[in-house]
Design a protein that fits this description.
This protein is of the alpha/beta class and 337 residues long. It is built from 13 helices and 13 strands. Strands 7-6-8-9-10-12-13 form a seven-stranded mixed β-sheet, sandwiched between helices.
Length: 337
């Protein structure tokens, strides 16, 4: 083989290898996914909040072009810690933030405006009463999904399940949110129409539940709690009191029904997180501004009957209950507490 042929062959193989590596590099770059970083700001550890978070995480599925990476910041019920975590999120390289609950949403909203950082905020686990506050500003960097309570239906169901109800004890906290007084007024009016008397007990801290509720519980047929941080977090105290006194505990969130309230009526918290995730995907995958994505309301509610707690909490299985169960009107049938 002469030198000319040798060098020609060597040049051919060298060029081929260069083309191979060049193509491989370009192919790798073309298939490399965009990283989307999502911060999750959570107020505390609680089964309902965990379910909301899980709904968001499980719905944020990677696609061919985007890989979602989420980081959870848990304030553990500490307002100061929540603010510092919100600051950390703003100083980090996040594409959007999912805020769970009113306090987390308010904190992040306030800081983005103060620092003039238009980080998109998507909220979940927020009562529709928060809508009035959001309507006051331009919503330039925020969207999300409200939880809409249906107290009228919730209370009407009570008359079918426990028609002998005459006295209801409503336990709530001043920290419930801006719609508290409106909700109390509406609930009281609805109960009056149903010939049910209402006693209201305010509790400012979980440690007060036993002392403030115990003096009145023996007079009640039903103890009602709203989707309210303090009663929901202290649900074990209320379950024990209701078991001792044979009072039916009626919760406005399904998780409390799973834990031991005989009755519960509310949304699946998972759905709140899932709806938020769909909005996050619109922001990331279609480059939509948060303000261009409509705020929606979750209105699909379910009724939970915890049969293991019916007897200790003074609830009898009557013909109406059996009929409702057979017709599928009781969507969650919890056998064990």
């Amino acid at each position: 083989m002469n030198k000319t042929v040798f060098f020609a062959i060597a040049l051919f193989f060298s060029g081929s290898m260069n083309l191979y590596f060049l193509y491989g590099k370009q192919h790798k770059e073309s298939t490399q996914k965009q990283i989307a970083r999502v911060a999750i700001l959570s107020p505390m550890s609680h089964p309902a909040i965990t379910e909301i978070e899980q709904g968001c995480i499980e719905t944020l599925k990677d696609n061919d072009h985007i890989q979602y990476i989420h980081t959870t910041f848990n304030a553990n019920g500490n307002t100061s810690l929540m603010r510092s975590e919100a600051e950390e999120i703003l100083n980090g390289e996040y594409d959007t933030v999912f805020t769970i609950g009113v306090q987390a949403t308010q904190t992040m909203r306030e800081l983005t405006r103060k620092k003039q950082i238009p980080l998109p905020i998507v909220f979940g686990g927020v009562d529709e009463g928060f809508k009035e506050e959001l309507d006051k500003d331009d919503l330039y960097n925020i969207t999300g999904a409200y939880d809409k309570p249906h107290y009228k239906q919730q209370l009407e169901l009570l008359t079918y399940i426990k028609p002998e109800t005459k006295q209801l004890l409503l336990v709530c906290s001043p920290a419930y949110g801006p719609s508290l007084q409106d909700d109390i007024q509406f609930i009281t009016e609805q109960l009056n129409k149903l010939n049910i008397q209402t006693r209201l007990v305010y509790v400012s801290d979980i440690s007060e539940l036993q002392a403030k509720v115990a003096p009145f519980i023996s007079e009640a047929d039903v103890l009602l709690i709203l989707k309210d941080h303090i009663p929901v977090t202290g649900i074990d105290v209320l379950i024990k009191l209701c078991d001792i006194h044979g009072v039916t505990l009626y919760a406005s969130d399904l998780n409390s029904g799973y834990k031991g309230a005989a009755l519960a009526y509310g949304i699946r918290e998972f759905d709140s997180g899932a709806q938020a995730a769909h909005k996050i995907k619109q922001i990331i995958e279609t480059n939509k501004a948060a303000s261009d994505i409509p705020i929606t309301t979750i209105e699909h509610l379910k009724f939970c009957l915890n049969t293991a707690k019916m007897k200790p909490q003074g609830l009898n299985i009557n013909a109406t209950v059996v009929t409702l169960m057979r017709q599928g009107c009781i969507f969650e049938h919890k056998e064990k507490s």
